[in-house]
Amino acid sequence: MSDAAPATVSALLRGARTQVAHEDADLLLAHVLERPRGWLFAHGDDPVPAAAAAAFGQLLARRLQGEPLAYITGHRGFWRFDLAVSPATLIPRPETELLVELSLARMPQSGAHAVADLGTGSGAIALALACERPDVQVIATDVSDAALAVARGNARMLGLSKVDFRQGDWFEPLRGERLALIASNPPYIALGDAHLEQGDLRFEPAGALSSGADGLDAIRAIAGQAPRHLLAGGWLLVEHGWEQGAAVRALLAGAGLLEVATHQDLEARDRVTLGRAAN
Ligand SMILES: C[S@@+](CC[C@H](N)C(=O)[O-])C[C@H]1O[C@@H](n2cnc3c(N)ncnc32)[C@H](O)[C@@H]1O
Fold first, then answer.
1. In 3D, which of 181, 189, 194, 253 has the Cα closest to residue 218?
2. Pocket probe mutation, ligand 1, options 143, 169, 195, max atoms within 8 Å of Cβ
3. Is residue 112 over pLDDT 90?
4. Which residue has its alpha carbon closest to ligand 1 atom 11?
5. What is the protein's known function (predicted)?
6. Distances (CA, A) of 248 to 163, 207, 232, 237
7. Ligand 1 atom having least distance to the Cα of 169
8. Whose CA is nearest to atom 14 of ligand 1?
9. Which residue has the least CA distance to atom 6 on ligand 1?
10. 118 backbone φψ class: left, alpha, beta (φ>0; ψ -120 to 50)
């Protein structure tokens, strides 16, 4: 047994902040102590129990190996929620909130028609739409059962039990159905792209990231089938890479969609392309 005085909150943070980003050090210690981040700053002199300090050291080591903070803590903020994530799901990105905003602006006026989120992952897009428009039926699909288990858990946690989660390949779980709006953030990185070997992407599921030699296989499949699943005047919105705007516009226009346009994210990069079924 050691007689050494327990480390304080601020001493642990000081040490960790020399190794990882300040925010990461703070969030990891807050996670271990089960406190909000702000609590740390008012309790800098508090002693940290040895077991908690050891647990913090282990999480810090994982972060130093490059593991994403969200997988270590098990959650990530998106829209108005704190969503559970796991290595079976993509970590929701702030850029995807643009897809949610553009979708909300095009949701059906009445709740008579359903909308869908294809490739829902943690459920981020579907749950944001369902939260803002409780009158509309939201269907969320994914090919990954493990991702759907996380998404269903998030829906339960948020009390959004009306969201209808379905497993299958893109439109397969929607056979014979037509929707007022289809939103998707599909995989869109080219196989072999060097980014897949960098940062958080190394830890995220390959099936959530890459899609064929040019990264466009999923968007090709979604755009090609969308007209058979959209109501007259219904919208398709897809997120994509910042260099794919022209290619995605061509795919949507080639599928017969009208009013095809690309919207840019806060960094003025092409991010979401949308198109509309004929009336
Ligand atoms: C880029 S992630 C997006 C996850 C989530 N929508 C988000 O924005 O955080 C793409 C998702 O598409 C799913 N996916 C990949 N191929 C699919 C397919 N053929 N059919 C349905 N979903 C698929 C993956 O499992 C993954 O959850």
1. 189
2. 143
3. no
4. 119
5. Methylates the class 1 translation termination release factors RF1/PrfA and RF2/PrfB on the glutamine residue of the universally conserved GGQ motif.
6. 28, 20, 21, 11
7. 20
8. 119
9. 120
10. beta
**Ligand 1 cavity residues, CB under 6 Å:** 90, 92, 96, 119-122, 124-125, 141-144, 147, 169-170, 185-187, 207-208, 218
Distance CA 30, CA 48 (A): 11
Interval 221-239: pLDDT, tens: 999 999 999 999 999 999 9
By CB atoms closer than 10 A (0-12, 13-18, 19+), residue 263 is middle
Closest CA to 229 of 260, 254, 256, 253: 256
> pLDDT tens, 21-75?
999 999 999 999 999 999 999 999 999 999 999 999 999 999 999 999 999 999 9
Give distance in angstroms: CA of 122 to centre of ligand 1: 9
Separation of alpha carbons 215 and 193, rounded Å: 9
The type of residue at 235 is W
DSSP string, 94-126: TTHHHHHHHHHTTS-SSTTS-EEEES-TTTHHH
Which residue matches tokens 């008579």? 112
